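Re: that backbone. Tokens:
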């Protein structure tokens, strides 16, 4: 039995689908034990249920304080004893206590070339700045929003006809759906760890993110 994987979502679940498919075909050596959403209407929940995956909803709107939501979410996560918690379009900022409890087990994918454009509206900001390149980054989750140790980053060249929607689709299809399953696969097999705040890949401390050149053939 592989690593125990829980995926947190808030929306459509594009990365959820990619991760699920990689688990099913054993590119990720893990058991996907649950999908949890902070929104009962998240489209990804219907996909997970149809795929026979356990689902839960911990609705943030039911809590007046973020700490109470975090505590409820942490309680649900504990019941699944996850080795890996993958944030896949999970649109809630998690508090320090929550992050510390699951430190080293949580990965996130962010649609920018971090440290550029932490937070929201990354594609719009890249276009407004006239950037030549844009992309996505997988990183460990730490109390600093989108500031954890970087694992792998993918880049693409902006094109003259890119608008916000087209750029978002390109980053998702060309980069995110490849690098996130790869990073989770590395973590599931023990090749990727967080040690003293740094990402360690195959016993090598990463001073900068890996690139798509390091993708294994199964994830290209």
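Recovered sequence:
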């Amino acid at each position: 039995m592989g690593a125990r994987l829980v995926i947190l979502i808030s929306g459509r679940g594009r990365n959820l689908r990619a991760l699920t498919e990689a688990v099913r075909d054993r590119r990720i050596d893990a058991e996907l034990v649950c999908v949890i959403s902070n929104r009962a209407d998240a489209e990804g929940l219907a996909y997970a249920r149809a795929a026979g995956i356990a689902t839960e909803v911990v609705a943030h709107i039911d809590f007046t304080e973020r700490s109470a939501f975090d505590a409820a979410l942490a309680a649900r996560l504990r019941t699944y004893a996850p080795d890996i918690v993958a944030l896949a379009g999970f649109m809630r900022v998690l508090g320090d206590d929550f992050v510390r409890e699951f430190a080293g087990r949580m990965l996130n994918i962010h649609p920018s070339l971090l440290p550029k454009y932490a937070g929201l509206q990354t594609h719009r900001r890249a276009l407004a700045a006239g950037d030549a390149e844009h992309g996505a980054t997988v990183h460990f989750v730490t109390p600093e929003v989108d500031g954890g140790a970087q694992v792998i980053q993918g880049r693409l060249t902006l094109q003259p006809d890119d608008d916000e929607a087209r750029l978002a689709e390109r980053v998702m299809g060309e980069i995110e759906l490849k690098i996130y399953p790869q990073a989770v696969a590395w973590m599931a097999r023990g090749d990727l760890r967080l040690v003293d705040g740094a990402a360690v890949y195959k016993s090598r401390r990463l001073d900068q993110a890996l690139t798509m050149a390091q993708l294994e053939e199964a994830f290209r």
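The mean pLDDT is 96. The longest strand covers residues 30-37.
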